[in-house]
Amino acid sequence: MKILVTGGAGFIGSHTVVELHSAGFEPVILDNLYNSNREVLNGIKQITGKDFPFYELDCNDIEKVRALFEKEQFDGVIHFAAYKAVGESVEKPLKYYENNINSLMVLLRVMEEFKVNKFVFSSSCTVYGQPDSLPVTEDTPRKPATSPYGNTKAIAEDIIRDHVHAGPGLRAISLRYFNPIGAHETSLIGELPNGVPSNLVPFITQTAAGLRKSLTVFGSDYDTPDGTCIRDFIHVVDLAKAHLKALLLLKDVSDENFYDVFNVGTGEGYTVLNLIRTFEEVNNLKLNYTIGPRREGDVEKIYAQSDKVNNVMKWRAEKTMAEALRDAWNWQLKLVNTL
């Protein structure tokens, strides 16, 4: 199957391109390089030995997206491309609603037009808001998102569900990610944010490498064992493989119109300080960090129950948090050495 990967030069997208190729799929990469780097394509090529078709364009441009579908005969789409910084979304909500919602609408319209019937959407555990009980299951009620970013994911899920219900011949899955971390074991691809990182682990690795003076831990007075937020951290390679499983499930379902959601996490929650200490132990170094005030938009604690994805998609996380933090540091060292 030929699969369009939007945001395919990004962190999760690039690893998914590699795993798609390993499993015999034909990935085609679409990315506007807003929060990614063309150099990632070289890393993908070194790992796979192959140059995949790459289109530098924006998913919001319906005419260019339509021209791409006309040129390539896609069997499915994995949609990663979106703005994703929680803090920035609080400051610039209209930017997030306009980009994240409109790009989805464009893709669904063009997919329907060209009769492309398999769609995997990059959703987020942020759709649960701050849940009343843990771990969260797919049946846990969605609560108001704590950030505009999270709300764009909830709205996007509703749009996909309603579109499928209208009977366009679409089979779709939303994967509700928890917190992807790590890098490819070759250190040829990893998380490469432009400017100030919005995610925790790149901030940790850049601080450890001396590129930043210190790391700020946002809040130490939460109702958790050490006062810092709890998250479910998943290795990005494991997460990438979940997209393959989703495509295979969509290929096999008998319903012409199908929609389902899956939590993709390890099922274990770790505090931010626990993550930092594991990073220090695994990589034998000390990290300079300070405790700061809470950050608006952050959820106190959340982690997944993974029974559904384990049983239905036959997927489970295989890599540990320690492995992910080792891989992330090796990736950072490679970046420093190549600058």
TrEMBL record:
- Pfam families in UniProt: Epimerase
Segments forming domain NAD-dependent epimerase/dehydratase: 3-265
A GO-annotated cellular component: cytosol
Name of the protein in its database record: UDP-glucose 4-epimerase
EC numbers on record: 5.1.3.2
Recorded GO molecular functions are: UDP-glucose 4-epimerase activity
Q: Does the keyword NAD apply?
A: yes
Pathway(s) the chain acts in: Carbohydrate metabolism; galactose metabolism
Which keywords annotate this record? Answer: Carbohydrate metabolism, Galactose metabolism, Isomerase, NAD
* Cofactor(s) it depends on: NAD(+)
Keyword NAD on entry: yes
- Show the catalytic activity: UDP-alpha-D-glucose = UDP-alpha-D-galactose
The GO annotation for biological process reads: galactose metabolic process
